Automatic annotation (TrEMBL):
UniProt protein name: DNA mismatch repair proteins mutS family domain-containing protein
Coiled coil residues, start to end: none
Organism of this sequence: Deinandra increscens subsp. villosa
Alphabetized GO MF terms: ATP binding; mismatched DNA binding
Xref: PANTHER family: MUTL PROTEIN ISOFORM 1
Short name of one Pfam family: MutS_V
Keyword line: ATP-binding, DNA damage, DNA-binding, Nucleotide-binding
One BP term from GO: mismatch repair
Annotated Gene3D superfamilies: DNA repair protein MutS, domain I (3.40.1170.10), P-loop containing nucleotide triphosphate hydrolases (3.40.50.300)
Domain DNA mismatch repair proteins mutS family: 836-852
Amino acid sequence: MCLLTASSVAISDPWRRFSSHHICFPLPRCYLSSSTLWQSKQVYCTKERRNTSTKSAKKFRELRDVIAEKDYPHIMWWKEKMQICMKTSSLQLVKRLVYYNLLGLDENLKNGSLKEGTLNCEILKFKSRFPREVLLCRVGDFYEAIGFDACILVEYAGLNPCGGLRSDSIPKAGCPVVNLRQTLDDLTRNGFSVCIVEEVQGPTQARSRKSRFISGHAHPGSPYVFGLIEDERELEFPEAMPVVGVSRSAKGYCMVSVLETMKTFSLDDGLTEEALVTKLRTCHYHHLFLHKSLKNNSSGTSSWREFGEGGLLWAECNGRHFEWLEGDMFDEILFRVKELYGLDDKVTFRNVTVASENRPHPLHLGTASQIGAIQTEGIPFLLKILLPSNCTGLPAMYVRDLLLNPPAYAIASTIQDICKLMSNVSCTIPEFTCFTPSKLVKLLELRETNHVEFCKIKSVLNEILQLYGSSELNEILRLLIDPTWVATGLKIDFDTLVKECERISCRIGEIISLDDEVNQKASYNVNVPSEFFEEMESSWKGRVKRIHLTEAYEEVDKAAEALSLAVTEDFLPVVLRIRATTASFGGPRGEISYAREHKAVWFKGKRFAPAVWAGTPGEEEIKQLRPSMDSRGRKVGEEWFTTVKVEDALTRYHEAGANAKTLVLELLRGLSAELQAKVNVLVFASMLLIIAKALFAHVSEGRRRKWVFPTLINSFGSQETGQTNGYHGMQITGLLPYWFDAAEGSGVRNTIDMKSMFLLTGPNGGGKSSLLRSICAAALFGICGFMVPAESAIIPQFDSIMLHMKSYDSPADRKSSFQIEMSELRSIIVGATSRSLVLVDEICRGTETAKGTCIAASIVETLDSIGCLGIVSTHLHDIFKLPLTTRNTVFKAMGSEYVDGQTKPTWKLIDGICRESLAFETARNEGVPEEIIQRAEELYISMHTTNMNSHLIDSKGSHKICNLPTPVQKPSNLSSIESTDQTNKLLKEVESAVSMICQRRLIELCKMRMTSEVLIRCVVIAPRQQPPPSAIGASSVYVILRPDNRLYVGETDDLEGRIRAHRSKQGMENSSFLYFLVPGKSVACQLETLLINQLPKHRFQLVNIADGKHRNFGTCDILNRNCKLT
């Protein structure tokens, strides 16, 4: 057998890295057999501890030196975690640890015994099941951790050690029950998984230990949900974090992602190195496993750090924690996931991989960073441009994932068709309730779905049905089926979705109590503090319909009446007697009070006993009073009193309440079990609404920015039909940089007619980089089905879009900026086809000019021979002196003009070559000292004897001066909210009156001007609905139907924002709106005043009558400006 010293053992694999955010996981099955250290079944270890001379201590040490083989790697893992602790308090605890058991407990210390029957022994048994998870054990009102786990709590959760820093006791820390969520968030945020052990609640026999059980786990991306069913709140659920595995095959790189929460996996095969790194950079994964096939790069060596292929992936993984795998990648990953999360071997995972045939390649990391698909400093963030500011969370994540992984042509066309329909919708639209699919699956699986979450699920289903029931939205719902299939991997047809949503919604409505039930109020009695009944019954009343638990509800009502009667008979006479006493300060005091800590209603008083018993009212009741006792039989205090009758009534009430609560939770758990069988439909419906909300938000923002829908061309045909439309090229008219807002001002627009490669030149600050970014973004938006910032566009379905901008050096990888650039260009050239869009900015800028020019020329020739579309921009003007063998490459330039003795850029794309760099002007504008610039100009003149004024040479060799003008650049409603007949009737009356008042006046004025009549079309916005995109930017007049049936009249150019503002006020959340669009703000202002003045004459009550004093406010642009609306 091998003798090892714990302090000297190190993991032999040089690729392992550990840091404060490392994630815990067991070693692979193949790891133990691969090392000579594990030839025996046990490992003998010695450890550093203080010397002791007692025989018992020596015997103890000999017994504990034998460590089971299965525990040793976990103990060493915890030791490495302890070595990176930095806080003083945690370092003090680390000194008291030993490394021969999974808890790190020294049995020589106080409370360190691991004997059978002790709490430590029980914790050790739980720890052995999940050896790399922090274990929190419920002990009374605290969750305690000992040994290694206590050090982690102190280091990462900011908790203080229990008992201070005494050196004679074991490390221990804990948190109160009320702070559990915060502690779990702190631990999972730092990458730790947590196992939570709960006590079995209820009475126990004297001197017996409470039973305990593992109630659940908290992992990064998967929170602890035990007990949520009893809460009346919504749980914040983070983005699910997968376990990721990466391998290499003949097709390229392969990435396997496994989501334990969803029980799903997906495989992305044939990835380029850059696409893989992008996925790793944007994926917040829980664990990372690398297959040993990655160690063999294209040169056939096993050195992963060599230059060339694999270097970018190494740089990405080098700073993260990962583990090597051997054998079959897929089988190993699934085995690890089951081992990590403690899953049974019978658990299966569903494949959600969607075939990637004819789908564009995922974006490279450089492309995603340089156009802002990944948030990058100094680059406009695409999500903030594609979506309005109030669209965040799940819809924004969907759009981000779509940009990083563009869809196939069929899906992109479908998304565009959906957006076009959304753009023309005139009816109201749902709020689109967003429910995290992983949260939905976990809550149903663990039977922890509470009343709030069921109501939210019902809202999701009802909004699906609202889309189905609307003539304008029905087709949108039908088209959303395919994008949802791609996002979820679930294939559910349209009719099945609608039928299942109807059934599930009805089933939830049968069980769950909605807002329309009036028989769910807490019990009440004037003599019992109201907060007592509210707090006792709020944990279960209002969750399910009373009809299902009639007997239990009635028993609670009877028990509450009995308690109220007992309190009235036993306590009230005493209180009345005290109130009748008019003694000065120091006299009797007494009242009926709620003892919240003891969940009881008792009499609280002092000095109320009479000095002489004279048979007066209240004396008999005073004699019945006795001191109140807590649950352990201890006297509560000197001021608290009760009676036998009251205590019996309290016991009966609590038992009835506990029974009712148990039955309510059973109903909720039963409903969760029913819905789990329909979980695929629920996940599909939830994702469909997320996509719908994202696309509606994009259309709203696109309309506001005055973007257009491009014409998508499947120029490469279908492999099934073999047909193409014969067009190869991209045309964009009036292209605007995507970060410019056309609604706020005008920028310089360019027209792009690209049928081959462009070789682009232009001065510094001339707009080359902006043009490349704009073209890249427009092409990406187009192939994703989104609107583009242009006046019109024809965009082909590219198989890849690749943009290379500036490069930086990477000292950690020992690579210069030119090496990084060459590495990126290599991957671009290897991945480019005739169906690609390649954009390279200022090629070969980081090396010697002559050789860099030749490399650039050779790359241009290569791209030209490939036949892809794209642009290569450069300042290497000597490239035009080389004998280029290009056939299709066109020379383009960014224009400039000579104004007032200075050359200035026009930011316009023109034909030809621009040799003017404007380097001196740029340096001067950026504040470089004038003497430096003057000296540079002298050196430049001395180096060039010929006149080098700015000129343009077209592709045929003729000379011309660029004289372009200088632009000015500036920067069937089935919703869950049921309206009453009275509300509907009032809405119809308001609509009729509004139409009559406004239409009549508009007709009269139009006749005076002899203009075409303007029709009033009123639209009702019910609760939990919002206006359609067609209302964005238009002037409108609106009427609010308040809960008190009074009206508010207003006008706005931002209807959506105004509705949101009104509904944010207390009591206005479920208000209904009626609006109609008008031609211009002046008309809106006049009609607003007209309605305020006229509606009261139709017997409507208004809250803003005072606004009607401005009777002649505003003028109408389409009517006679002298007409007054009175």
